[in-house]
Amino acid sequence: MNKKLLAILIIIFALLVLIGLIYFLFLAPVKETTPAPEAAQPVIIADQQNLPAPVVRNQVVTRARVSEDELKSLSASFVERFGSYSNQSGYQNIRELDVFMSQAMQTWAASYIAQARASQADTSIYYGITTKAVVVGTNSFSDTDGRASFTVQTQRREAIGTSANERSFQQTADIALVKEAGVWKVDSVSWAE
After folding, report:
1. CA dist., res. 2 & res. 90, Å (int)
2. Which domain of life is it from (predicted)?
3. Kind plus residue range of the DSSP H or E element containing 106
4. pTM for the full model?
């Protein structure tokens, strides 16, 4: 037998095996087995007099104390998301952070977004800025008073038009947190010039 004929036979055999596998795995009818009916078991109702009385447990839910390091991490994450912006995102960066904001900050954010939308800035030319927190320093922290203040040093990258037209710079953000209803919330963010 020559080599061409042998190669053709091997290919035909492989195709037949492949077709058989496809048929048995995907196209062959599947027999549905019905489970055998179980013998009916009598229902035993417990005697009401033998049941123990329900136990009532008074559980006090306590909130875990939040450490200074956890608030630093929250501050860094908040500043990164708050400071990353695109003129084509519809202020999504601020709206998504609403759950982390104090009532005063939520009011400010809603007002800021309304004013920015009213100005109807041109979105045909892309403008975006990304922010990465580098170092977080503590200005003040008092768990008992429910106030904390941190300084977040950031590395920011600004792009206008295309990503080829971008510049990098460092900027500092001061962030204040307050405890509202026992939960730490961001009360203000201010960028240093």
Report:
1. 70
2. Bacteria
3. helix 103-118
4. 0.64
